[in-house]
Design brief:
95 residues, alpha+beta, single chain, 26% helix
């Protein structure tokens, strides 16, 4: 499974395509040079239960580690994943 990433400067998204159609995505906004805010995750009904949402979060964590930034998970799904995964604490933004 190939999760793709598109960064348009101030905003970006991680997404998954099937036959050229975007069927899952997770969007974020750059809060500053060292923090992104993940605000939305959406997975097509046809993919429910396949762990696609988790793979999107994994891709964002990998991106954060590579770019030395933190993630503020405002999306309820992403926030719940961060609470379950102790190995993501290194990229979690905390006030």
């Amino acid at each position: 499974m190939n999760i793709k990433h598109k960064n348009t400067g101030h905003k970006g998204r991680f997404y998954y395509e099937v036959d050229g159609q975007e069927v899952a995505k997770m969007t974020y906004t750059h809060a500053n040079d060292d923090k992104i805010i993940i605000d939305h995750t959406e997975v097509d009904e046809s993919l429910k239960g396949q762990g696609i949402g988790y793979k999107l979060v994994d891709a964002s964590v990998e991106y954060a580690r590579e770019h030395h930034i933190k993630i503020l998970p405002l999306c309820p799904f992403v926030s719940s994943v961060f609470k379950k995964k102790d190995d993501y604490t290194d990229v979690l933004f905390e006030d």
